[in-house]
Specification:
Glutaredoxin, six-stranded mixed beta sheet, 286 residues, binds zinc ion, single chain
Length: 286
Amino acid sequence: MRHSLALPALCVSLCGCLCLCAAAAGCAHLATAQLARLSPGSEPDGLPDRAELATGQLVIHADFPLSEKHRMVRDLESLRLDVSQELGLPVSDEPIHLYLFQSPARYESFVASRFPAFPTRRAFFLQTDTTLSVFAPWQDRIAEDLRHETTHGYVHAVVPTVPLWLDEGISEYFELPRGEHGRHEDHIAQLAGRLLEGTWRIDLLRLESLQSAGELTQDHYAEAWLWVHWMLHSSPARRKVLQDYLADLRRDGQTAPLSVRLTHLDGPQVECEEKVRAHLSSLAPL
Ligand SMILES: [Zn+2]
């Protein structure tokens, strides 16, 4: 979750050839024609092109020199295998272009110029028919933002169409530093607090009904993370349900949803949701 900066973190997925995911809450739509103007350039509002670094699946374009030995770069490389192994997905060689701006002001100028209809966001992921790209400014939460957005890239490189809620749940899971094993303290605290208030309940069908990022609230991001954490950490059988689902999505974007698959393993929806609630309680005793 992202809340320390003036620019909130949001994620947006669009249907068809274009997927846009940014770090925060809200919605944006880009016309495909706008992509034609995304050519590198040295103008003040152009793409970063002063330094380029290719490492693993990543091609990093930056306003400044960046060593492949930089801890953040190594971290993003490691993320590729982590995502693959945790989700049971193959790795891809499809390049993911990371555009790193020297400052939020430079990034905001770029977004305003190239995506004038797009509300300002802290970072975003863009998928077209031919490219996977991440855009982000250098700031104090750059590592978290890049882990989140690059996770979208690693996943979309092999599963181009992922349900919005799951796409975000997976990226929220992997945005955390490796040593935290997907335990998202901000989400745990938020959901536990909402349960105590009685102002929120677990509801996978509601998550699955979400069609645009503009509908996503912080509760949705947090709940999406919770379902992913539950499937990956509660039992090998549930982990396999998630992995099988993603494998099937690679072949058929219309395959049976996770809610149906989980009921085969865990019983009716209400029982599934009670088990997820218990999982949350085990993380933050209520
Ligand atoms: Zn996202």
